[in-house]
Structures are given as structure tokens and as C-alpha cells.
Amino acid sequence: MGKVTGFLEYERLEEGYAPVPQRLKNWKEFVITLNEEQAKVQGARCMDCGTPFCNSGCPVNNIIPDFNDLVFRGDWQNAITVLHQTNNFPEFTGRVCPAPCEAACTLNVNDDAVGIKSIEHAIIDRAWAEGWVQPEVPAVKTGKKVAVVGSGPAGLAAAQQLARAGHAVTVFEKNSRIGGLLRYGIPDFKMEKTHIDRRIAQMQAEGVEFRTGVLVGAMPEGTKITNDAKETVTPAQLQAEFDAVLLTGGSETSRDLPVPGRALDGVHFAMEFLPQQNKVVAGDKLKGQISAAGKHVIVIGGGDTGSDCVGTSNRHGAASVTQFELMPQPPEQEDKPLTWPYWPTKLRTSSSHEEGCERTFAIATKEFVAGTGKDKGRVVGLKTVHIELQGGKLVEIPGTEKEWKADLVLLAMGFVAPAASVLDAFGVDKDNRGNARATTDDDGGYKTNVAKVFAAGDMRRGQSLVVWAIREGRQAARAVDAFLMGCSVLPR
Ligand SMILES: Cc1cc2nc3c(=O)[nH]c(=O)nc-3n(C[C@H](O)[C@H](O)[C@H](O)COP(=O)(O)OP(=O)(O)OC[C@H]3O[C@@H](n4cnc5c(N)ncnc54)[C@H](O)[C@@H]3O)c2cc1C
Ligand code: SF4
């Protein structure tokens, strides 16, 4: 364990942030990683409590007490070995994971949790800097071929595991760059894309082939889903050429708000706005970018995606940024005896909120207001009403109607399902939410109803988190390996 009395002696230390005026000037990450000594002290706070709830709170089951102890002892190289045993990409989770492990930490019962995420972040950044992250090329090739459709964290984790098991893996991605929502959803200021690029290089050295700009199956007509494909491959072609196909296409259909005025110029899905900015940072020349510069921006949706729209709008130089959340404002503090070790509902203020944003809760949008004259066809405002929960139902409160000024409205209300056309092209059954139907059973897990076709990540479980996508990719890789070879030594 770390230091026996560490949790009594040391306070939790948060990672630092660059000052707001400085970070708003660019698209770079602004989190200041713990230095070696700080990480050691934070590792010393781990009590080695005996029943590490953090380990089961973490979706990839990171062996947290062990790496805390190794960092405390200064054995960073073994710390990254332990971390990589359960997590292919700790540099992604160390940056963007909401850290359910910390909610589950035993110290969190009556003190501040161990800063697990910041320790993970420090370990992997040091490992890359020291050159400890190297390709792991399989000694023996199996001669089996696997196609992975979609290159988000689920597809990448699966591809890496399958390549290390000796299979010839090809990743098909419709967009022009690899990474899924890591690349085109999460803004650069939360995670710079060089982290994906060096993993791609590692995976190529391990034998993974990446084919970008290739759509497998079909996209729905008139869709606003990002699609840079220049080539289409049919499911039949993949099924003929490969011994197994894993679908990790994410959950890309945005939830819409079909109120009057939805078709006005200036009303966009978050996932039209955010990918464009990530492309611009990557150096792409776009024909016309949705810009928040000088505009009154209203973001509808109080989650992570909405928060990313807030941070992006402020970097564009918006005149004002307001965020609406349909549900009532949650409490500032959770009731720990009631919620621990589970993820609590409480008011969460992101770094983007701190950069400037008015937040309004319990509010429903009734109409987008159309402009006149030179603004004809454009959105110039919003009509709203406040609501409250009555008997489990959201009810409008009379007399709370209000009109807001808005010249850019971003819809960030989550995602309803994967593009049905992709699953339909394969003939894959859907569950009642429209996700690919596949179980996570140990026996035959991640298998769909179609022979040798598997599904994992957001495409199977619905909109979720990077860490869950990595878990599903790893587990699906084991299922595919067992299907191809009769058994698998890949981790469960
Ligand atoms: C704006 C935003 C911010 C987020 N922030 C966070 C965060 O901070 N922390 C966190 O943990 N999670 C966050 N999430 C959620 C997280 O990004 C997702 O849960 C995760 O990326 C899902 O991984 P995936 O591999 O299943 O799918 P995705 O990342 O969605 O990747 C799917 C890929 O498949 C490709 N594809 C789809 N269909 C086809 C096809 N037919 N042919 C070829 N390619 C195809 C897509 O182009 C895409 O690249 C965020 C999501 C969004 C939208
Ligand atoms: S991946 Fe997420 S839940 Fe797991 S240890 Fe890291 S921060 Fe915690």
C-alpha cells in the first residue's frame, strides 16, 4: 500500500488549470499534470482499504491500489505496466474520464477521494515521455482476418487487442481521420489529437491496417451525421473477405427538437458545430464554418456535449453563451450515505462553464423565433417556459414564458441511437432503443444475430463514455478471438 498514514497527513490536490484569459486564446489543453512529487503524495493517500470499490467503480477495472502504491514508491515503469493490463489508452481516460472510480473510493465516504484520474494521467504521460510505450508485435500470426467498422475508442481497443492476439485487423472509418468522437466530438482543449496519432502509429507497427474515408453499408438520406466517405464497401464484401466483423460505429443520431422554427438558419446540432472546429484545428480548409463569433449563443442540453459547445463558443468569441437544461438544478452536494459508492447526481461545473456561461435549469424551449428583413429565414430568438416535476412528469408553469435573444442555437440533447441504415445493411437486429442487439454474456458475448458479426461500444450500449467503449472493445476482442480460435487468452 501507499503510506500507512498518508490519507491522514495529506490533502487531495487537484490538477491545475491555465488561467481563463490565457486558455481562451487557443485550442490547446490547459490542465497542468501533477509533477512526480505531487503524484507520489497523492498515491500515498490510498489507504489500501482491502475492498477496492474504486476497482469495480472503474468500467475497465483498473487495478488502482497497485498503481497508487507503485507511484508512491517511485516505480513508474511498473505502474504503467499495471495500468496497461486493463486499459489500452490511459492517456484518453486520464484526460476525459469523469472518474466514477473516485465516486467509489472508500476515502470518499467521509473525506476527499484519492485523485485517481490525475495519477493515471501522470503515469501515462511519463510513460510516453520516457519511451516506455512501444508496439507489442505478436510472435505468431493466426492467419485470421478481422474487420472493425468504426475507429472510436471501442474499435481502437478491439483492434489493438485482436492484433496482439495475432489476427490481421483492418479498421474501416467513414471519416477522414481515425478516432471517432475522440477525434471529432471532444474538443482539442480537452484532448489534443496527437494522443490519438501516436496510438495509431503504435497500432500500425503492431499490424493494424487503417482505411479512412470508407463507409461500410449506408448512411440515412439527408443526415447531418459527419461523413467524409469517398468510397463505400458493402456488408457482403466484408463478410466474404473477413473471418469476423466487429461493428463499433457509435451512436451518431442526435436527439432533435422538433418545435416551430427548427428549420431556421442558425439552429444546428452540436455535432455539426464541434466536428467542424476540430477539423479546422487539424488544418482542414472548410467551405463555411458555423461560427459563434460575436453571436448570442444558446446551447440546449446540460451535459458534456453542451459543455463542449460552451467552451468552443467562448473560444470563437461569442457575445454571450447561455446553456439550458430541461431538468431541475441538482443539489450542490450529494448525500454520500445514500449514493456512495455509486455515481451521484449533483451540480457539476465544468472548466468550460468557468470560462463564461449563464446556466438555466428546468426550462423547455417552445419555439425558435424567425427574423425579419435582412434576418429573414434566420433564428433571432427563442421562446421558453419554466417547468417542474409533478408526479414524475414535467409540467409547464404558467406565467413563466420568456423570449431570449439568440443568433446561434446548438442542440446538445444527447444521441438517440446508431444510424439504423448501417445495422439494417447488415441485417443486425436492434433492441427497443435502436441499438445493435448483442449480449455481454461470457459465452458468445457481443455476437449479433448475423453469422460472424459482432457489435460493441455506443453502437451496442447506446450513448456512453470513452472508458465504457474501451471496456466493450476489449471484451468484444476476447469474444471474437474465442470465436475464431475456440478459446482466448485475452483478458475478460
Ligand atoms: C461532444 C462529445 C463530448 C464527449 N465527451 C466525453 C468525455 O469528456 N468523456 C467521456 O468519457 N465521454 C465523452 N463523450 C462520449 C464518448 O466520446 C463516446 O461514448 C465514445 O467515443 C464512444 O465510443 P465508440 O467507439 O463506441 O463510438 P464513436 O467514438 O462514436 O466512434 C464510432 C466511429 O464509427 C464510425 N462509423 C460509424 N458508422 C460507420 C460506417 N458505417 N462505416 C465506417 N465508419 C463508421 C464513425 O465515423 C466514428 O468514427 C463525448 C461525446 C460527445 C459527442
Ligand atoms: S479509467 Fe476512469 S474510472 Fe477508471 S481509473 Fe481511470 S479515471 Fe477512474
What would you note in describing this structure?
Helix 3 packs across helix 5 (64-72), helix 5 (64-72) runs antiparallel to helix 6 and helix 5 packs across helix 9 (116-130). The chain has a five-stranded parallel β-sheet with strand order 5-4-3-8-20, sandwiched between helices. A five-stranded parallel β-sheet has the order 10-18-11-12-13. The model has no long low-confidence stretch (mean pLDDT 96). It has 492 residues and is α/β, with parallel strands linked by helices. Helices cover 34% and strands 17% of the residues. The radius of gyration is 23 Å and the shape is globular. It has 20 helices and 20 strands. Helix 10 (153-164) links the parallel strand 3 and strand 4 (168-173). Bound molecules: flavin-adenine dinucleotide (FAD) and iron/sulfur cluster (SF4). Residues 58, 60, 62, 64, 93, 97, 99-101, 116-117, 120, 467 line the site of iron/sulfur cluster.
What is the topology?
Elements: H1 6-9, E1 16-17, H2 20-23, E2 31-32, H3 36-44, H4 53-57, H5 64-72, H6 76-86, H7 90-96, H8 100-104, H9 116-130, E3 145-149, H10 153-164, E4 168-173, H11 181-184, H12 194-205, E5 209-212, E6 214-216, E7 231-233, H13 235-241, E8 244-247, E9 253-254, E10 267-269, H14 270-281, E11 296-300, H15 304-316, E12 320-324, H16 336-339, H17 351-354, E13 358-360, E14 363-370, E15 379-390, E16 393-396, E17 402-405, E18 408-411, E19 415-417, H18 420-426, E20 453-455, H19 458-461, H20 466-485
Parallel strand pairs: 3-4, 3-8, 4-5, 6-7, 8-20, 10-18, 11-12, 11-18, 12-13
Antiparallel strand pairs: 1-2, 9-19, 14-15, 15-16, 15-17
Helix pairs in contact: 3-5, 3-9, 5-6, 5-9, 6-9, 7-9, 10-20, 14-15
Bound molecules: flavin-adenine dinucleotide and iron/sulfur cluster.
Flavin-adenine dinucleotide binds near residues 181, 216, 457, 458 and 459.
